[in-house]
TrEMBL record:
InterPro entries: ABC_BtuC-like (IPR037294), ABC_TroCD (IPR001626)
Family: Belongs to the ABC-3 integral membrane protein family.
Compartment(s): Cell membrane
Organism: Mesobaculum littorinae
CDD domains: TM_ABC_iron-siderophores_like
Topology within the bilayer: Multi-pass membrane protein
Protein name in the entry: Metal ABC transporter permease
GO cellular component: ATP-binding cassette (ABC) transporter complex
One Pfam family from the record: ABC-3
Chief place of localization: membrane
Gene Ontology process terms (BP): cellular response to iron ion; response to zinc ion; transmembrane transport
């Protein structure tokens, strides 16, 4: 315990944890709108498009200045976003094709620029390629002010344009009919995703940043149907994953922070997909199992009711073997559940010694209701 407290009081670890928290909040909130607009690949495209901006920022500043590098990343990321919007609106390319074009071209340009910088012999370029996979340990407290300022500006923009973002995300056609500048709002939302990418470049890098855009929103979407709750949950999940990844990286020496953050948020997504109410895989399996049980019960009830009606006897005793043969399965468990509900009861039918079942008055009422529902849906 004392070792853990000493570890958490370490200046570098605190700095990395705060940076990871900023990344989790910003990417969690801004990624929600990309996921809801079915543009999950947008984060991947903009993160790869940030690489040439990183190189251009370095070339302009002549040194590894974080402010210049992030500004360059924002410019090229925003430019890639505008190119995607232009391609989808001015050509016949679908969104996924436009995203693929922007991703491949911008990343290729970034690799060429990175190779050029490495060949110039500039001593300041050391560690520049860490932006590919992130280097959280290199973050300084002064860098946190830059990251925090970008995160605060993007979150303030979300708060100011909440209704517009919400409407355009769910029904852009209706937003157009109201006279809203849908194109401008879409550009703003896309540029905001670029802001989230910029915040996470030094933490998780270009290659892994797409996971931080998509994963928190995907996990949050499993737990709620409301946008407000989804945004809050996504920010919480992103923060938890960021801090957990940073802490694990500090306790397990030699493990990179960025990949651990991505693994942490991936674990949250897995748990959400598995356990979330109504949407979770386990809940879905349980629901289907209950539906199958309920369907078998309804089928046996309607069969008993039809047999009683055909013989003109409300108390007609149906033989268990006949029911099994008719339904092609063993119906004893189904009948036992129906008996517990008071819908059927076992009876004797001399001189036969095999089990027989008949409907109770409540069973007849339920069977007639089921028959009426079936007729109403035909």
């Amino acid at each position: 315990m004392a070792d853990m407290l000493d570890l958490l009081s370490d200046y570098t670890i605190q700095t990395v944890a705060m940076g990871a928290a900023l990344l989790g909040v910003s990417s969690g909130v801004l990624g929600c709108f990309a996921v809801l607009r079915r543009q999950s690949l947008l984060g991947d495209t903009l993160s790869h498009a940030a690489l040439p901006g990183v190189c251009l920022g370095f070339l302009v500043a002549g040194t590894r200045d974080l402010g210049s590098i992030l500004a360059g990343a924002l410019v090229t990321g925003a430019a890639a976003a505008l190119v995607v919007l232009a391609l989808t609106r001015l050509s016949r390319l679908k969104t996924d094709a436009a995203l693929g074009v922007a991703l491949s071209v911008s990343f290729a340009l970034g690799v060429v620029l990175l190779t050029y910088i490495q060949g110039t012999g500039n001593a300041s370029q050391g560690g520049l390629n860490s932006f590919l996979f992130g280097q959280a340990a290199a973050i300084l407290r002064s860098d946190l002010w830059i990251m925090g300022g970008i995160a605060a500006a993007s979150l303030a923009l979300v708060a100011a344009l909440w209704k517009e973002f919400k409407l355009v995300s769910f029904d852009p056609g209706f937003a157009t009919s109201l006279g809203l500048p849908v194109v401008v709002i879409e550009i703003t939302m896309t540029v905001m995703v670029a802001l989230a990418v910029v915040i996470g470049l030094q933490m998780v890098g270009v290659v892994l940043m797409t996971a931080m855009i998509v994963a928190p929103a995907v996990a949050a979407r499993q737990w709620t149907r409301r946008l407000g709750s989804m945004v809050v949950l996504s920010a919480v999940f992103g923060t938890v994953a960021g801090v957990a990844g940073a802490t694990l990286s500090a306790t397990a020496r030699g493990l990179s922070t960025g990949p651990l953050i991505v693994l942490a948020i991936s674990a949250i997504v897995f748990v959400s997909l598995l356990l979330s109410p109504e949407r979770g895989l386990l809940w879905e399996m349980a629901r289907r199992w209950r539906d199958r049980r309920s369907l078998r019960g309804r089928q046996v009830l309607t069969t008993l009711h039809a047999m009683a009606a055909e013989h003109g006897d409300r108390s007609y005793p149906a033989e268990l073997g006949s029911l099994d043969t008719y339904h092609g399965t063993d119906t004893r468990r189904v009948l036992a559940r129906l008996e517990q509900r008071g819908l059927v009861r076992p009876v004797t039918h001399a001189p036969e010694t095999t089990p027989h079942w008949e409907l109770t008055p409540s069973g007849h009422v339920e069977a007639r209701r089921l028959a009426a529902d079936i007729e109403g849906h035909q």
